[in-house]
Amino acid sequence: MPRYCAFFSSLNVGGNRLTMEELRHALRREEIDNVETVIASGNVLFDYEDRPTEGLEELFGFIMAERFDIDSFVAIRTKDEVRAALEDNPFVGFGEDAQVHTHFLQSQPPQENFDALLAAYKGRGEEKFALGERCLFVDYVHGVGQSRLTPAFIERRLGCRTTARNARSLGRILAKM
């Protein structure tokens, strides 16, 4: 069976408190195999029959809503897609791994939405952007906490939900996969 990683958004923020043990238990009850959390921030490795990741994202989103009453976007990627999210990021190796992020996107935004994001953010900060395959790559330069580039800002411009991980975390997740 293929190995996947689920990247959960909005966990343990804004009142959406959930332990990784609760999450693992819920997924196992849904007959999802070999469930393992990596780094206590909503990263779940699992095995599942070979199927498109978009369908799995819907399943995991449904589980979150039904079991925990949490509206969480869940980006699911194969091992190859996680590797690509790290290797295709043009800022890896140039920026600090803790500041270089891959935003996993719910869908591939049209180029004009990416252009709108760039235009809307111009002059607001020194972040660098690049669009990938269902990914937005960002070098936060001075840190996410200092940035005015928020997930809500990105989501409004791109027209899809997102959840991000830094290059260091992605490296650890990929190694575990």
UniProtKB/TrEMBL annotation:
SUPFAM superfamilies the UniProt entry points to: SP0830-like
Name of the molecule in the record: DUF1697 domain-containing protein
Leader peptide range in chain numbering: none
Gene3D superfamilies, A to Z: SP0830-like domains
